[in-house]
Write the structure tokens for this entry.
Amino acid sequence: MTHLPQHPSEGTERERPLLAVARAARTLAAAGVEAPRAEAELLAAYVLDVPRGRLALTEGLDPGQRDRFDALVARRVAREPLQHLTGTAGFRHLEVAVGPGVFVPRPETELLAGWGVAQGRGQTVPLVVDLCSGSGAIALAVAQELPRARVVAVERSPAALAWLRRNAADRAAAGDTPIEVVAADVTDPQLLADLVGRVDVLLCNPPYVPRSVAVSPEVAGYDPDEAVFGGADGLDVIRPVVARAAELLRPGGVLGVEHDDTHGAAVPALLAADGRYERVEEHRDLVGRPRFATASRRADGQHAEPDAAWQTGSS
Ligand SMILES: C[S@@+](CC[C@H](N)C(=O)[O-])C[C@H]1O[C@@H](n2cnc3c(N)ncnc32)[C@H](O)[C@@H]1O
């Protein structure tokens, strides 16, 4: 059990919000949490049920709220992810529900989702597929931002599927275009057989961390193993997805696959080697790390250039 420093106003008085935040930020920093001030503010805002930007305008935490806040900080010190404590993760213009059994969507994946939205814009009813959908963050963002799209989300894990179905129902109830949820293994060579040759945009954030890589306590303790690790070289799911996507996409349809930052050459090389793709491109995130690769399905009968070159861009 972690003991927080004594409150300056132990008893019945309210603790001023910025004092509570400063106290918690010191505790989180000492525990090695990366962004202690921001996380302390988010937890205080959560307990006070106000937007983070309005924290300083509140009267502060009453004794019951202080106890809740301290309990949450103690769980964060034990490296439970912030999003598990608040029960939600922000993703583009959405909040999705997350918790045990589902991968917490990451900010860098918003780039892949945004790329997918841009690809679907201008098409009347784009057919968009999100493989390895987890909480549904990518699929639901696309459905919200492209309301005329047909969006199909595929996930295998029963625990993740429960979160995905819950988020899909919540977003549909909120007025977004409903998405279709399919329980399936994305490495199945017969995946989505009824969509062969018809998909306009195929997005995938698969498990891709090589098995030997050490991950943070939050990832090791709380993200499901099957959401994180992609076999010995991290490419166990990406390889079959690249192959099946070439069958699912229509000619000119596009694929975007997130990958490990050590795979900025390997994934574009897999796409180029397949022979059925053109316009293979690598995309970097805001800090310059290779983050996702994209390609377009050639028309059948078109032949790949041997050793087709691929480009690097930034998102
Ligand atoms: C990195 S998470 C991505 C989740 C979500 N798309 C996101 O970006 O937050 C990978 C997801 O793929 C799922 N998954 C792993 N292997 C799979 C497979 N063979 N078939 C279907 N889903 C799989 C995991 O359960 C997990 O939900």
